Amino acid sequence: MSGGHLGRAGREPGATAIAGATSEVREHELVVRARGGDGAAFDELVREHAPRVYRMLVRVIGNPTSAEDVAQESFARAWRGLSGFREDARFSTWLYRIAMNEANRFLEREARRETLPYEDVMQEVPDLAADTTAGAESRELRRELERYLAELPGNYRAAVVLRDVEGLTNEEAAEVLGLRVRNFKSRLHRGRMELRRRLEEAARER
Asked: What is the full DSSP assignment across 158-191?
């Protein structure tokens, strides 16, 4: 089951692979320069990743102003900790993990973060990242999804955002959250099921 890959259809596979490889080479060059103290290179990395990091934080935190503050702190922490970046991981994954850690600190300070137990649940649920932009009914569904997503407990919301909105793999999202893959799948499943429950309740009330 795929998630969070909107807007990618229609590209030639070969062109996509070449573009991706070129982007990775360029990113590696920027990381090397930034690790050497090149602030301009780091600024370019920030410009590249800031929109996705901010969008993720808005959905996880639920407040655009707070998300912007947390994003700024995340980038500052990334700059200070760049010497510890292991190049066996993707820079974006490393940056997401920093941002998620900062988001969790914020949520803990706000006393809104909830710790819940995990279990290995493998039941398939609908792909929440499917294109829902066509038609008034689909747009309403998208608005409902956004609203209910914002109401999820922080740990469930983070899992759903990373997997179904940002399109990370289970392995990448688990690394960002510092979880084992099986625990991440459990958290993701619970978040998806809670969204489904709320959507079904809304549908019955119509």
From this structure: HHHIIIIIS---HHHHHHHHT--HHHHHHHHHHH
